[in-house]
Design brief:
CATH superfamily of the largest domain: Immunoglobulins
Strand content: 25-35%
Radius of gyration: 23 Å
CATH class of the largest domain: Mainly Beta
Number of strands: 9
Structural class: alpha+beta
CATH topology of the largest domain: Immunoglobulin-like
Order of helices and strands: HEEEEEEHHEEE
């Protein structure tokens, strides 16, 4: 008799959880945005493209380029796109190689100047370096803009 009571309780909890999850506010509409990023005439792999809205209340959207330089924006779930509106765009590609011991020691010298102390073999890792021209690192200086409408759109980005 007891297993029947547990089963009914479990079913009731599942139903309540489902109703609770589905009754929340829905997300704003998004529309697919994609494109290709090239640098010095070649597709740029592993670059982060970020669309920063110019209007309050609109979420930023971002994507990462694949081996062919193609990206798709994501706002809420993978590949959903961006909300309609005006955006300024920034692009970055960070060096992913591991820092050498010499680079760590050079960075440690800087950190020591800042009065940080490291013990033993724990050398701090320097921050990754953006490989693209500095102007593309900030949406305010990149000069790249895009308007997302209520339909799919594309923005190809060429970095000289």
């Amino acid at each position: 008799m007891r297993p029947l009571v547990i089963s009914r309780a479990a079913i009731l909890l599942i139903l309540l959880a489902h109703v609770g999850c589905s009754s929340g506010p829905s997300r704003p509409a998004t529309y697919p945005v994609s494109g290709t990023v090239t640098w010095k005439g070649q597709p740029l792999e592993a670059a982060r493209v970020v669309f920063v809205p110019t209007t309050a209340g609109v979420e930023a959207a971002s994507g990462v380029t694949d081996a062919t330089g193609k990206y798709q924006l994501t706002t809420f779930v993978a590949g959903d796109g961006a909300q309609p509106g005006e955006y300024r765009v920034k692009v970055s590609k960070y060096d992913t190689k591991k820092a050498t011991t010499a680079e760590k020691k050079e960075y440690l010298t800087f950190e020591e100047e800042q009065k940080m102390v490291f013990s033993g073999d724990e050398l701090p890792t320097p921050p990754a370096k953006n490989l693209l021209p500095k102007k593309y690192e900030q949406e305010s200086t990149s000069g790249i803009t895009h308007t997302v409408t209520k339909s799919p759109s594309a923005l190809d980005i060429t970095i000289p």
